[in-house]
Inverse folding.
């Protein structure tokens, strides 16, 4: 398993932290679901994925790396609860969802530091309080509404010819784990899709996933994407972007000048 294949499991674990951060901020908006069950499922996925990174990085050194208290707790959660149900397992007690999210953050960053020689140097850890399914549930976004939002964000998306008369048709490489079933001489038959999301938080998650798939499929490729999400939040707060990060058009010359002033403050030259 090369470093970008390993990065897939690291980022899958990171997205579990994102889900916990979203739940911590928006539990009331999704209170129609079983929050406890969602938390347990998210934590299970987190520990399964993060231990893949540890196992592949240190296949024969589990005892040694577990001298670290944080790493030891990660394995305890995986071995005694997430992968198996040990009768002697004792869960750590938390008062709030925020505490769970912060603990998972600390654990993820500890693994990033420990496994730095086995993960791509380009890899960044960009926490976003977001979960694709919960976000849509909280905002009542149906498939029809999602299509309308994407059409507003990307007006030309339905007019592009994805089946040109000339060129090569490729199969879509959908998952890094599919690589094991594709002979090396057939990898050139595949291509990856680069996707944007319904908002910048989802775009970051999707683009990073797609960068990983691209790097796994094509040797010697190390593309990556990151962003300063706080600046996007400032644009929303200032009214220059709506909640789906679609630009708000000024209605007058005076409003245009005010928009330009805000942009200069957020993005100084």
């Amino acid at each position: 398993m090369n470093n970008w294949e390993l990065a897939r499991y690291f980022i899958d674990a990171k997205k579990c932290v994102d889900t916990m951060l979203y739940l911590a901020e928006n539990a009331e908006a999704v209170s129609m679901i079983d929050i406890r069950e969602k938390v347990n499922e998210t934590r299970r996925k987190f520990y399964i994925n993060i231990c893949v990174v540890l196992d592949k990085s240190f296949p024969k050194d589990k005892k040694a790396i577990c001298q670290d208290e944080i790493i030891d707790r990660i394995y305890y959660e995986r071995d005694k609860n997430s992968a198996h149900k040990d009768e002697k397992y004792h869960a750590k007690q938390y008062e709030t969802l925020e505490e769970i999210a912060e603990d998972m953050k600390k654990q993820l960053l500890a693994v990033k530091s420990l496994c730095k020689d086995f993960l791509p140097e380009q890899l960044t850890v960009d926490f976003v309080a977001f979960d694709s399914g919960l976000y849509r549930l909280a905002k009542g976004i149906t498939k029809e509404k999602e299509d309308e939002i994407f059409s507003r964000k990307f007006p030309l998306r339905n007019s592009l010819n994805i089946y040109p008369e000339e060129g090569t048709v490729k199969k879509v490489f959908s998952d890094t784990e599919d690589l094991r079933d594709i002979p090396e001489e057939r990898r050139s038959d595949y291509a990856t899709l680069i996707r944007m999301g319904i908002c910048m938080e989802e775009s970051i998650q999707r683009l990073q996933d797609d960068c990983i798939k691209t790097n796994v499929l094509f040797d010697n490729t190390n593309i990556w994407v990151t962003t300063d999400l706080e600046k996007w939040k400032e644009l929303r707060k200032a009214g220059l972007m709506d909640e789906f990060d679609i630009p708000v058009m000024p209605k007058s010359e005076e409003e245009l000048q005010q928009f330009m002033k805000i942009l200069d403050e957020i993005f100084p030259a």
